[in-house]
Amino acid sequence: MSEKSDNYEKGLEGASQTVVAFDVGDKSFLMRSQSALHKTPSLVPLVVLVCAILIFTGWLGPRFLPQMTLVFQQIQVVGILALAQTLVILTAGIDLSVGAIAVFCSVIMGQFTFRYGLPPAIAVGCGLAAGAAIGALSGWLVTRIKIPPFIATLGVWQIVLAANYIYSKNETIRARTIREEAPILQWLGLKPNEQFVNWIERLQGVTYERIRPNDTDQFLLDLIWQTKITYGVLALIGLTFLLAYMLRSTAWGRHVYAVGDDPEAAELAGVNVKRTLMSVYMLAGLISAIAGWSLIGRFASVSPSASTGLEGNIESITAVVIGGISLFGGRGSIWGAFFGALIVGVFMLGLGMARVNPQWTFMLIGTLIILAVGIDQWIRKVAA
């Protein structure tokens, strides 16, 4: 027996130690690109954004780049709505009520302040709570009643829009009234850079008869003055960082991706799918309410007929799709939505400065949407 064992071991001497190997050959450039984009989905919108800025800078000259701060102001409401929309789409759903929630919550903030006499800060809190409650309603319809997200949020959108007009009696609260009696409602529209410059110049004893000119003999203060970044823009950037951390570095974020990728597999893995979906819709409602507060700051007034109630849904979905977030759920980055909103803003600003027919803007954005979905389908082949 021992002799056979010795012969067996001698027979293995010099033999290859590799159990099995697969020769896949060198990956082509397209395959490497496909794999990289699958791992980093926000890379595509970032590249498109940089290219768009370079193209418009070359076309319009040096006058384009200084206007980029206007892009941030233009997208501060839609960008925040896109963050809310991203959370829902990552779970393979869609929320058609985000725009209506934003407008209704802005109306609640205004009416609670001027109709009921609540302190403005309390009124803002009530508006934010209302947004979370409406989001909870959508989540309940989706998780408990089992209504598809498209139908559930479509119904909530109509209900909220109707409630908005009935409750407000279509009454607009003017900017001057808000500025004099409840300036906190306009806080997200204020520019911290201007406040900083005014504070420095007051310390220096510098005053102006009316409005501070853009160009004085103080270069650094002039540069800060012309930055024109609002608190609403800072809120957008801050929310993006916060949600990016939550989605990538917390168990809740991993559950969101798991539910969007395969809810049945997530359930088997121990994920509470219903609770995760409920939290997503509630958070989306809260973020939409923040967009409503930003809406007051952006336009300085409270208007129940603001176009965001109708157009905000489509604009947020546009930013999300252009940002590379998969409509099938489970793949995408919150930064993609941020870049997608910026892309739309850059196109609108650049073509507007070039005095191009506005219809070309819609045509180009529509083309970008189709290309984004096509690229998403191509990238998904990596996981197939």
From TrEMBL:
Pfam families named among the record's database cross-references: BPD_transp_2 (PF02653)
InterPro entries, A to Z: ABC_transp_permease
GO terms of molecular function: transmembrane transporter activity
GO cellular component terms, semicolon-separated: plasma membrane
Membrane-spanning ranges: 42-60, 80-109, 121-141, 147-167, 229-247, 278-296, 334-354, 360-379
Keyword annotations from UniProtKB, A to Z: Cell inner membrane, Cell membrane, Membrane, Transmembrane, Transmembrane helix, Transport
Entry's localization field: Cell membrane
Topology within the bilayer: Multi-pass membrane protein
Major location category of this protein: membrane
Name of the featured protein: Mannose ABC transporter membrane protein/fructose ABC transporter membrane protein/ribose ABC transporter membrane protein
